[in-house]
Amino acid sequence: MVLELLTLRSVTVRPVVVPLKRPVVSKVGLFQEWPMILIDLVTEEGIVGRSYLEPYLRQSMAYLVPAIRDLAAARAGKPVHPVDDFQQGRKSLNLVGNEGLSMIAVSGLDMAAWDALAKAANRPLAELLGGSLAPVPTYNSNGLWLTDVGGLAAEAGELMAEGGTKGLKLRLGRDRLADDLAAIAAVRSAAGAEVRLMVDFNQGMSLGDALHRCHALDDQGLYWLEEPIAYDNLAGHAQLARELATPVQLGENFYGPRAMAEAVAIGAGDMVMPDLMRIGGVTGWLRAAAIAGAAGLPMSSHLYPEFSAHLLRVTESAHWLEWQDWAYPILAEPFALADGDLVIPDRPGAGIEWDETAVKRYGYDG
Question: What interhelical angle do 61-75 and 82-92 show, nearest 10?
Answer without folding.
Answer: 120
